[in-house]
What we know:
Largest sheet: 9 strands, mixed
CATH class of the largest domain: Alpha Beta
Distance between the termini: 33 Å
Structural class: alpha/beta
Number of strands: 20
Oligomer: single chain
CATH architecture of the largest domain: 3-Layer(aba) Sandwich
Shape: elongated
Amino acid sequence: MNVEVKRGAIQDEQTELIVVNLFEQVTEPGGATGAVDKALGGQIRDLIASGDFKGKLNDTALLYARDAIPAKRVLIVGLGKREQFNLDKVRQASAAAARKARALGVTRFSTIVHGAGIGGLDPSQAAQALAEGTLLSQYRFTQHKTEKDDRENGTELEKVSIVVVNEETVAPVRDGARAGEQIAAAVKWARDLVNQPANYATPSIIADEARRMAKANGLKFQALGPADMRSLGMGALMGVAQGSAQEPRFIILEHNPRGEDTPPIVLIGKGLTFDSGGISIKPSDGMEKMKGDMAGGAAVLGAMQAIAALRLPHRVIGLVPATENLPSSTAYKPGDVVKALTGKTIEVISTDAEGRLILADALGYAQRYQPLAAVDLATLTGACFVALGIQAAGLFSNDDPLAARIETAAEAANEKVWRMPIWDEYAKQIKSDVADMKNTGGRGAGAITAAILLSKFADKMPWAHLDIAGTAAIEEEEVPYQPRGATGYGVRLLVQLVRDWK
């Protein structure tokens, strides 16, 4: 879909459909909506007066122009209560409008920038949110379907025109819309990676996808194989990988626009392309969802794509340890001890606590960069899902300023986080009699003890861990720009974090 920005008046657009908006409890529409209402002879006011349209968030109403204006139809989308209005409401309203347009069989439509006028939002940020919501609302994963349902066979949107009245806002709106396009493309790619069946997304296939993306976006790419990892001493990652016939990969991406050897921001994503639990095998019911245990890795790859496409000025490294975790005669076992890259040893209590093992080696590798910060994302623990549900990721950090940066970026991206403790008192739960630590600390505080283990490998750098177990995928649609399945959670947050870095 193509998104363009142009100067003009929405009521003068000659197109199949124009989109305007309305807050709740508005009786006299103003701005662009008021101009359209006037041109239509008060049809929007009539809708309001009759109670047929109340402006509730994401509600829509359709009017027919009947030659009163050049457009054939007018779609009004609700923005909800003005006091609750923010950028995510722009994403949602834009997505609701785009979905309605698609359902109507419309291929092109024109829209105002929701919130850039009376809503009081920054025009560039509002345009970015509009583009994100519009594009993400059209996401479908249908690669493996030979018979598609009506929703999947619907008309494809081809073009969206964002119409701006004032000349001085054209450039910032265009910049915002372009950023939204790039970020939405990265989120959709990350969703694709997570939604793929595990036989279509093995570690080597993920590495190949990352290689193609890197080449297209000017990123430096490297993928370490088993011999490289053994040579480096990545015994924790290789311990997990040894049960599978699929070779692991350690993916390294670098964005360095200035070519300088400066301390980077390092992003790390757990890349378990399928997690059976290994010898500590999971229940069969729902195990198919474990193809998505690489959602953290997909988020990092997507973020790196957007960071490169947006030409952000910072040096950024992306690391994705990718492997399967399967039971076999060669699989690692409960009671085994593995040695990580840093030399620290870990007693394996459960082979289903594998994510923290591969991340331990990734964090150890990240230390060589002496980074400004290292941030890892992982579908790490069911305990975090129990604690926070699907609404927020657990945030753990050894650095308060870094945690504050992430909280600010999360709020802007509407990818919520909630900070959790990593107090020393919890460390005794992972104390081992035979190694430096054990990989699980029992049932209590499971997300915290997993983070405590990771902190042992991040003690020489500012570090944060995001447990995205509850946010990586959804069973029921929450907002119009996020269909069932993979969410791409983390892409927008990480890009915002890097964009905001000073």
